[in-house]
Amino acid sequence: MAETIFGRIIRGEIPCHKVWEDDHVLAFLDIGPLSRGHTLVIPKEPAERLDQLSEESAAAVGRVLPRIARAVIAATGAPAYNVLQNNGPEAHQAVMHVHFHIIPKYPDGSGLGISWPAGRLADDEGRELAARIRERLAGDRG
Q: Considering 24, 38, 97, 99, which one is annotated as catalytic?
């Protein structure tokens, strides 16, 4: 994995506005926030995409993500929020280190703006695709 700015933040080479740290996870305020309180939650394990993250690190992030979200919402007073996680440049990932965004959403519209051009899943396609995914899951032992 290539060196990223997050690796340098984890090692303390670049300062951040830290809100959480334990042995596996670091959370800090985004320096280019979409809204007040925009927070990044990152595993300390170097992995580019979520599917490359160890189960231990994934579990560690999963344990603290709700706690950090509650704290961000309580501290900011935002009535809603988005949790965003991108994997790969085609999915708009800018820093190639797994990270989750907690982005407060305010009545003024600040926060994450998204478009959701929903399609339609055909029944036969759904059956075939679900079977393929189950097959992969059965073969994946972590």
A: 99
